[in-house]
Amino acid sequence: MPAQLGWTNCALKYPRPQAAPVSKAGADTYLSLQWHLENTGPLPGFPSMKAGEDLRVKPVWNAGLRGEGIRVAVLDDGLEVTHEDLWPNVVTGSRNYRTEAGMLGLSASSGGKIAGLHDFPMPCSNDDTHGTSVAGLIAARDGNGTGVSGVAPRAQLVGLNILASNFVADTLDALSRDLNRNHVYNNSWGPTDNGHLATPEPDWSSYNDTLRNGLKTGRNGLGAIYVFSGGNGAIQTDYSSLDGGVSAMGIVNVCATNAMGKRAPYSERGANLTVCAPSADATDDQQPEVTTTSVRNDYTHTFNGTSASAPMVSGVIALMLQANPKLTWRDVPLILARTARKVDEQDGGWRDYRSPLGNAQGLYDVLHYSHHYGFGVANADAAVRLARNWKSVGGSDTLKTCGPYTTTVNASIPETGIVTQQGADQTARSTKDNSQARTYFGALYQLSNTLDYQMAPANGLRSAVEIPAECDIRHIEHVDVKVTVTAADGQGTHPNTGDLQMALQSPLGTVSTLMLPHACTDLNTAAFGAPELLVERCGGLSNFTFGVRRHLEEPVASSNSRNWELVTADRVQGGEGQLKDWSITFYGR
């Protein structure tokens, strides 16, 4: 019997890796339950399923593409590299960031003593299932007579267990590890879904420098592909655009749809979303969750969240890169956006923009955008077809940058279109019973479900930046908007930035909602029974950067205007402030 490896405070023990397990042949045991790969309609016990609401991956497999030669790094809590359905695709290059207890705050990347083997990023307890489930959705082995299949079932896997460390230095190390070997970096993690503005740690500069180095030097200059989950906090009124880490340039930010082709209720909206992928509804027991790998050589049928959607898109990207290995980090989101499926057409809040492709015979000329769905649900078949003959737009070296263009405003933000009275304070308040906090949260939740995200707030403060003529970007790929608001006297911080609705409007009239009125929340897990939802004041907004994907392929200027407007309104009565200044930066070609 091989020696069992374990380390301090870890319940799970694993045999030291020996020869690969004996591989079987045959159909994967649970393939018929993997509706996200092929949804043929209701499954036993799950009547609420709409046939065709899937990734359209089967035609790609039938064409002979299964991700061979493409390497995906899974940044998560662990990866059970000995799992029978993952082992065949695991390659050298995994990294264990878990350090021994009592290492005086030393991270693995700064000299901390590793707990276990350096290249053995195994789960520590039965609760550390997340990364292993994520990996199975990307590249569980197909046709081996057991388990499940990944979207790209022959892609290569490495595990980087940064969530076992929680050191920022280890996260930055993982995002830049093996840049010439790893093609895709899957990140099914993010900040707490509590509505507060989330600035990347340790700071904007270090985080962006790490990402931009990966975009510039990864894959021998073609650029690493960074995929992130869009967030699971919509039920608490959280909004993906409030998370700076998943909104940075170059990130493929992923939302979730259910088996009926509707937004999963937890999936955060945003102007930063790229595409959605299927996942569990999580509020409707008539719909299935997601089947994938789990720890202890096992499987789960209850995986969910945008954590499940992101690895599906990573798998689709692996198929695209196999079809065309020369795709750059800029090409990949352009292809995903042009080929994504439009869903929920009646209530999805879609706006279309026509941007012809010269060599696609009109098939992918129209882009559709919704703050609920990004450009739509990822379509592996169409994405691979377009990828095969895609004319690259280039990598980092040919990316044009205009800005930042800054304007100082120092004007009061009007209270207008009031939806509720102030219900948040410096001290967190319970939403139980008939409290003002409950009324406040309920009004903001209702607004999040009824707001027209494609419209700027009526009667809001309008501030314009005129873009100079020397900025000749005709196809926007990313926009950064940096904003500062203050208290009513122009000093300090706004009393509650959750009161604000803020939108960016382009010369074409296209609107990106950067912020919506929302609650900042906490959970009192010590409460008797179910956790108690608390509301509190949202923090300040100072030099926060909103990353925007929504204006993809638009020109910086129209035929009669070069003005970009920021429109801001205070929709909650009580607690006023000023817009101090803002700036805008464009990236594209």
Fill in the keyword field for this structure.
single chain; 589 residues; alpha/beta; Rossmann fold; Jelly Rolls; six-stranded parallel beta sheet; five-stranded mixed beta sheet; 8 helices; 24 strands; 15% helix
Written overview of the protein:
The model has no long low-confidence stretch (mean pLDDT 95). This protein is α/β, with parallel strands linked by helices and 589 residues long. Helices cover 15% and strands 24% of the residues. It folds into two domains: 56-389, 3-Layer(aba) Sandwich (Rossmann fold), CATH 3.40.50.200; 400-588, Galactose-binding domain-like (Jelly Rolls, Sandwich). Residues 435-589 form the P/Homo B domain.
Give the distance, in angstroms, between the N- and C-terminal Cα atoms.
60 Å
Number of strands: 24
Q: What is the class of the largest domain in the CATH system? A: Alpha Beta
Q: What structural class is derived from the secondary structure elements?
A: alpha/beta
Number of helices: 8
Strand order of the largest sheet: 4-3-5-6-7-8
State the domain count.
Answer: 2
Strand percentage, roughly? Answer: 15-25%
